[in-house]
Specification:
The chain is α/β, with parallel strands linked by helices. The protein is built from 13 helices and eight strands. Keywords: Methyltransferase, Transferase.
């Protein structure tokens, strides 16, 4: 499948958030790919069997990252369907394309694009996003583009994290780090609004209504996630990515001067979590949000 045939224009001018993903976060995400793909697999397994995807469907995966969700979707739609994965980070897509080549799949391709500014129109039966829409700088614009990519009557599903209290795998480490370091200032460089920006059902429902969706439904899914192969891996992950990682990164030299104390405190907190054969496991909770592009 060619980009031209799909009428997708690859991103050429990046926003500040997109530059931050490519220049700062990409290498960190690649380092912890085993957590961001494998660690979330239990959560994905709780969601994927319920997705309204049929053989032969044309599917768009927004914020596809390393391509694991797009590949799963390609398996669901079969050889008569097609899947296009888009992401703003080229480094992630390199991994996705390599995995597709290894598997010999011909019904999935990947394009670097910013969903807030560059998506095709009226081409897909289903649009999907796993933990990506939370980082839209303009969520209404991004979700409107996702809707316009659907054919009339097409469905979208996006998955977002619920409240901080229901996601200790993200919130606990930040609470620990804030005992030693100040909160990031308003001028801090970030990847976008953040993982809890769509936790409030009423707010997100209003956003989606403004974006033109109909029959908006929310379903809560609770599932464990693996946050590290062991305690040291989990600590390194938390200080590199997510809310705790942002606090640590923005504190700069102060954070490094207190690294030993912070790591000791995180070790104590993480040692209290559950363990499984694949590593340290913590609770997580998401909204699986579905909607229709009106006829």
């Amino acid at each position: 499948m060619s980009n031209t045939a799909l009428n997708i224009t690859p991103t050429t001018e990046d926003s500040q958030f997109v530059r931050f993903w490519n220049e700062v976060l990409a290498s960190k995400f690649i380092r912890f790919k085993h957590i961001l793909v494998g660690g979330l697999s239990r959560h994905s397994e709780a969601v994927f069997p319920t997705l309204p995807v049929r053989p032969g469907d044309h599917v768009l995966d927004v914020g596809c990252g390393f391509g694991d969700t797009a590949i799963r979707l390609a398996e669901l739609v079969g050889p008569s369907g097609r899947v296009v994965g888009v992401d703003c980070c080229e480094a992630f897509l390199d991994y996705a394309r390599a995995e597709v080549r290894t598997r010999g799949l011909t019904n999935v391709c990947f394009v670097r694009a910013d969903a807030e500014t560059a998506l095709p129109t009226n081409q897909f039966d289903f649009v999907f996003a796993r933990f990506g829409t939370m980082f839209f700088a303009n969520p209404v614009a991004g979700m409107r583009n996702m809707r316009k990519a659907l054919r009339p009557g097409g469905r979208m599903v996006h998955i977002v994290w619920r409240d901080r209290a229901d996601n200790p795998w993200l919130s606990m480490a930040k609470d620990v780090v804030l005992r030693y370091l100040p909160s990031p200032g308003t001028d801090a460089l970030t990847c976008g609004p953040g993982p809890f920006s769509m936790a409030n059902e009423a707010v997100v429902r209003a956003m989606m209504t403004s974006a033109g969706y109909d029959r908006i439904e929310f379903r809560r899914v609770d599932a464990p996630v693996m946050v590290g192969k062991d305690v040291d891996d989990a600590i390194a992950f938390q200080l590199a990515i997510g809310p705790a990682g942002e606090v640590f990164r923005e504190a700069g030299a102060l954070a490094e001067s207190k690294r030993t104390d912070i790591e000791s405190a995180l070790a104590a907190a993480i040692n209290g979590q559950k363990t499984a054969a694949d590593g340290v496991v913590m609770d997580s909770s998401s909204w699986v949000i579905s909607a229709i592009n009106p006829q």
